[in-house]
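Encode chain A's predicted structure.
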Amino acid sequence: MKSPLPNPGAPLEHFVSDAPYDPNDVENDNDLAGPTAHASQTRLMWLYFKQHRLALASGIFLILIYLAILISEFLAPYNLHTRNTEFIYAPPISVNIFHEGKLVAPFVYGQDMTLDMNTLRRNYTDDLTDIQTLRFFCRGDSYEFWSLFESDLHLVCPAEGGQLFLLGTDRLGRDVLSRTIYGARISLTIGILGVLMSFVLGIIIGGIAGYRGGIFDMVVQRITEVLQSIPSIPLWMALATIIPLTWSPLLVYVGITVILGLLDWTGLARAVRSKLLSLREEDYVVAAQLLGAKSSRVIGRHLIPGFMSHLIASATLTVPGMILGETALSFLGIGLRPPITSWGILLTEARSINIIALYPWLLFPVVPVILVILAFNFLGDGLRDAADPYK
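Encoded structure for chain A:
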């Protein structure tokens, strides 16, 4: 039987095709076939990200909720400070579309209030004879849109002379749903601003420490260790109490953002430092140095893109940490203060166990906090996998 192998020392046969090269002609069984054959890095990330359905849904949810805070005044049925003194601690009411077996326009039933003289508790019951049809794209409470101009246009309004408390009211008769919509603007933006500040500090300080090393690296590491050894909540409380009571709500907001940003850069700085220590000796980094590239260019163009997936995951995990930090400070009464409204401020209404037992709907602002934190975690997981260069 003749051996299929060539004779020892004989040249190997090879074939060269004379056909012109077609870059789009890729074998169907090739790993590069399909839309990834000649896709850019950005498109590859998007294709991988779309396969993570939960992360994609979380991203859409976060985009919608951040777009909603741009028009909070329009979406809220009531003004932030509107009081309905006749409906203090009113429970949530439901929207109906059927009345006596007939399909009608969306409506709510009127509420009758009676006072229990033994417990001094207000009891509300539906008045089935009082049908209050909801109005859409209607005129209601006036407001200042982003402090630019006055308007009274709302997405949905109660009937003329009626009420619409979908999530109940608080101790002053203010609509919980409207205040939650307004509070989202503060709670969500404070996370983004805090992350931007901590990222700038973390990348710059950690990048210089990891790339240059020496005394600067030693000083940064000691400062980082000291800050990370202090419990977060007591440190936040100590720094938040420094904010003067005479400051305006806007200055308090800026102060809380700065505090959260200054205290959260240490973890990212250490991660950036460790990555740069391992990458700064690579051949492409040495080549960039020999070509005369500055340190800022080497770090920004050659080193940081190498671990962008880690930075993306850190960003999406840091935002919910900022939101929880603001919520905790405001809940403890040392963060933001009225008239500013955030989810943490709203949760101060439910600090008493008796209040929770009697009026559980006051805990509703914790629901968007949980949903946003979960969405950021799922989004970060999907972005990290999509941006992973070793995928």
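The two ends are 46 Å apart (CA to CA).
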